[in-house]
Amino acid sequence: MAKGLGRRSLLRFLGAGVAATSAAGALAGRGAEPVAASTHPAVARGGRLRRWAMVIDLRRCDGCQSVGKPPQCTRACIEGHFAPQPMEWIEVYEGHLPGGGTQFIPTPCQQCQNAPCVNVCPVAATFATPEGVVLIDQQRCIGCRICMEACPYDRRFFNWGQAPQPPEALFMEYDAEHQSPAIKGTVMKCDFCPDMARSGRLPYCAQGCPNNAIYYGDLEEDLATNGEEVVRFARFIATSSAYRLKEDLGTEPRVFYIPGHGEAAGRSPFKRGRLPTQWPWQKRVRQGAVPWTR
Amino acid sequence: MDTVIGVRPREAESAGVESPPLAVPPEWRARLERRALAPLAGTGWRYYAWIGALLAVLGWGIFAYTRQLDEGLIVTGMRDRISWGLYIASFVFFIGISHAGTLLSAILRVTRARWQLSVTRMAEFITVVALMVGALFPFIDMGRPDRILNILEYGRWQSPLMWDILAITTYLTGSTLYLYLPLVPDFALARDRLGPTAPRWKRAFFRAAAVGWNGSPAQRRALERAMTVMMLVIIPVAVSVHTVVSWIFAMTLRVAFNTSIFGAFFVAGAIYSGIAAIVLLMAVLRKLLRLEEYITRTQFLYLGYMMAAFSLIMTYFNVSEYAVHGYKMEAGVPFHFEQLMVGPFAALFWFYIFGGLGAPAIIMLVRRTRTIAGVVCAAVFVLLAMWIERYLIVVAGLRVPLEPYAPRDYFPSWVELSILAGAFALFALLISVFAKLFPVISIWEVVEHRGPEPGARAENEGSRRGRPGVAGRPAR
User: Fold this and answer.
1) Res B249 pLDDT > 50
2) What single-letter DSSP state applies at residue A37?
3) What is the model's pLDDT at position A39?
4) Whole-angstrom Cα distance, residue A93 to residue A277?
5) Is the Cβ–Cβ distance between A111 and A134 less than 8 Å?
6) Rounded to 5°, angle at Cα A279 from A286 and A261
7) Which residues of chain B lie closer than 8 angstroms to A107, CB-CB?
8) What is the mean pLDDT of residues A208-220?
9) A147 with A131: CB under 8 angstroms?
């Protein structure tokens, strides 16, 4: 080192730095490899991929006021997915109507086709499947929560502590399509039940709705059903002035809403309030697991 | 004396050719070397007591973190609807004050200023240490710190967090190099001055750190060139760092973050708080190490003027942001303005506006307060206000409801506050250790490019002249 820092040695040093950075870049490129989710895309006739989508008919949703229970879509979802308290993956918000009064808006993950959460995830733990469903691989998630900042619909939930789940959830084999058992320090959300759809069943929320307000179906085959009737998807949303939440953000959700305030269920827009959601296994959770608040 | 200072041919530096050293009085030079090397030579019990106190606070912070590792982030005040809090605000704050070094040793160097040479070393300390401490926060904030390697294994460049990791790593590498380069001649000086009585490890350390520096013209040329390269490299890197830090917010669909000036706003705020950090550090080290002769009113006032200028830039950015948002009153903006200006954040917000942006400018404007004490006071205001500003951006920004639900409140838990205290202790600890191992003044640069401070004598006589040392102007 008698010559000290010459230009050459400096350049060599900088060159080594560039090489190291590129090596890190090449490593980072491995993010393209598939994540741990058992996604075998569902295929429609003709070999085309299914594109799962949902229509929620707000004319039929009265926040379960008529049945005198907490929202049954949320209850069915919680029981089906063992969603830990306080997660309401489909949450029934009470929004104001422009002319006075309120409406109930069941809000699952909107399954954006330009999903802000997928864009910002640093490790591709949240990803879109070929069917267009946005899932989370909780075995990869690092818990940075930037997806929760990015989601404009407040539809992401974090396991702040040991999640309060019943014992049967803990025996399940983990899969990104049902997310149980919950993993501390990772993000969860509505997974749109593509596993149920592939086996010919409706998602838990659609099954649970007493007023059949939730339609689920395939944009590719242009069919949707609420369990009671089958509709042509495109015509149904076109003829009922369906809209999507915060459409101006350009997130391209796969969840459509038909405007209303529960009138088909006989609800007055001025009858406010819904019952709070309950978690049926509060006494059966493992020791040390405590619920938190949103 | 004044006629000698700063007389350097303009071509000399740009060509990287060594100019003849300034003629400085040998006794002045010997005194400077003694003063600047004194902390390296001996250590008193007060230093160990101080280190012990810092280690105690740091230990408490680490204990708090073990609680968080054990139970999860449930021990913090964060929840789904305000899912970033104190940690991320502190991350932004620390990365912000790291801009002190870049401003003083790179931006001012480009303008060929000379007055800052006696404090560049301290500013570079702040840069490196603030980056090391600040970069810890995103990892402390992680829900699964055990999966940290996933970032390398599955990292995707589409994510703003990856931009942060790339930018901050580059910046830390670059600024460590930029701290080290001008240290080499000073290490050599320490190596030569320590004498045979110094402990063996110390002599070995300085011998290794000086990498065979002997001050030959070829070495000097190489050093000057390397420093010029780093100076030019570090400025865009510093700007990019704080721009991408702002983008972890601005790239989300939140109304309070939805502004294209966020990058520039964060960079300005970073430099603003960086100036305040260096003012505070140099005030402390000047007192402790008795460096009054080298850090004079000139340095404080010039930095104070820069702080005042940046308070105006910050005011401008605030006016731009609040005017554009406030005029249109898009959905969510009325709620945001209300919570900031009259709601739960009003006290913090108005302290930020008046104490953090107004007060420093006024302190520098009024002749009576335009003193060293005044500048230090303004710096304290700025540091507090800029920390608050980061807190408000994160917490108030996330508090704006996205759906019809009642807004959640956030208050940091004891774990978060303990970890923050531990981080500040770590910051002070690293600065203290650096000040013990490295000369706090870039001796050779001061000797060769600056010479004795023109204001040093005058200040002792209590001069109130508004213009600090005319000869302290940048060399032309």
Assistant:
1) yes
2) -
3) 57
4) 12
5) yes
6) 160
7) 403
8) 96
9) no
Looking up tokens 């008046």 gives: B354
Distance CA B379, CA B121 (A): 19
Hey, is the C-beta of A128 within 8 angstroms of any chain B C-beta? Answer: no
Inter-chain residue contact A143 with B211, CB threshold 8 Å: no
What are the helix (H) ranges across B289-400?
297-328, 333-341, 346-350, 359-365, 372-391, 397-399
Beta carbons of A61 and A225 less than 8 angstroms apart: no
Please state, in angstroms and rounded to a whole number, the distance separating the CA atoms of residues B182 and B78: 43
Using CA atoms, how far apart are residues A275 and A279, in angstroms rounded to an integer? 13
Query: Which position has the token pair 């902390």?
Result: B39
CA angle A287/A288/A290 to nearest 5° reads 110
Sequence-separated contacts (24+) of B435-438 with Cβ below 8 Å: B435/B39, B435/B125, B435/B285, B435/B289, B436/B39, B436/B40, B436/B43, B436/B47, B437/B40, B437/B205, B438/B40, B438/B121, B438/B125, B438/B183, B438/B186, B438/B187
- pTM assigned to the model: 0.89
Residue B399 in tokens = 């508090």
**Rounded Cα distance, B272 and B382, in Å:** 8
Tokens, residue B303? 């930095």
Tokens of B417: 């506050």
Residues of A whose CB is below 8 A from B152: 24, 27-28
pLDDT of residue A18: 58
Structure tokens of A281? 């296994």
What gap in Å lies between CA B83 and CA B75, rounded to an integer? 13
**Inter-chain residue contact B161 with A96, CB threshold 8 Å:** no
Would strands A91-96 and A102-107 be described as parallel, antiparallel, or unpaired?
A: antiparallel
Any idea which residue has 């609680």 for tokens?
A: B67
Angle at A178 between CA A175 and CA A179, to 5 degrees: 65
- At B30, list the tokens: 């010997």
Cβ atoms B245, B164 nearer than 8 A: yes
pLDDT confidence of A233, banded at 50, 70, 90?
A: very high
Q: What is the pLDDT of residues A55-112, one digit of tens each?
A: 999 999 999 999 999 999 999 999 999 999 999 999 999 999 999 999 999 999 999 9
Separation of alpha carbons A110 and B65, rounded Å: 36
For residue B392, what are its two tokens? 């408000």
- Write out chain B residues lying below 8 Å of A187, CB-based: 143
Q: With respect to CATH, is domain A52-281 assigned 3.30.70.20? A: yes
Q: Is the model's pLDDT at B25 over the cut of 90?
A: no
Beta strand pairing call for A157-158 and A255-258: unpaired
Residue A195 distance to chain B (closest CA, Å): 26
All residues at 6 or more sequence positions from B94 whose CB lies less than 8 Å from its CB, including other chains: B130, B131, B133, B134, B137, B423, B427
